[in-house]
Amino acid sequence: MAGIRGILMPQNKKIILTVSGIVLVALFWIFRVSSETNPQESHMITFLSLEEIEAAGDRRIRLGGIVKPGSIVIQKTNLLDCRFTLSQGSHTVPVHYTHARPDLFTDDAEVIVTGQYVSGIFEADELQTKCASRYEGDLRDESSYQLDALNL
Q1: Which of 51, 55, 104, 149 could serve as 129's disulfide partner, Cβ 3.0–4.6 Å?
Q2: How confident is the model at residue 74 (pLDDT cuts 50, 70, 90)?
Q3: Residue 33 in contact with residue 42, Cβ under 8 Å?
Q4: Does 151 reside within a domain?
Q5: Do residues 17 and 48 both lie within one domain?
Q6: Is residue 144 assigned to a domain?
Q7: Domain that holds residue 84
Q8: Is pTM beyond 0.70 here?
Q9: How does residue 114 score in pLDDT terms, banded at 50, 70 and 90?
Q10: Where are the beta strands (DSSP E) in the chain?
C-alpha cells in the first residue's frame, strides 16, 4: 500500500501544480485586462451627444446625428475622402471620413460615426447608417404589408 501511495503522490502533485498554474495565468490576465486605463486598449467607446463633444479630449468616441443636407463633399482626386456636417438639434460638427461609405449615406441620413475629435473636426474611422424608413412598413397598419407583391 505504501508503494502505491509513493507512485500516486507525484502524479497528484503534477495535476495540482498544472491546475494552479492555469489559475494563476487566468487571474493575471483578468487583472491585466481590467486594469487598463487607455480606452483604446480596452475597446471602450463612449457615446456622446454633439453638445458634449468638447469634453471628449483625445479619446475615441461615438456620435450620432443627421447628415446636414448639402454638406457632403467628396474629394475629386480621392473618392474615399469625404467631409460632411453632422447635426443633432441645433448643434453641428464637421466630420472627415476616409473609408468606403455605406450605400444609404446621403443627405438627411441618420448616421453613427466613431473616431476622435481633433482641432474642431471629428476624424471618423467608422461610419454606419440607419436603414431608411421606406424599407420598413408600419407594422400596426395592415394595409402597408403589400401581400400582393409576395405572390402568395
Answers
A1: 104
A2: very high
A3: yes
A4: no
A5: no
A6: no
A7: 40-133
A8: no
A9: very high
A10: 46-48, 61-67, 73-74, 82-88, 91-97, 110-118, 121-129
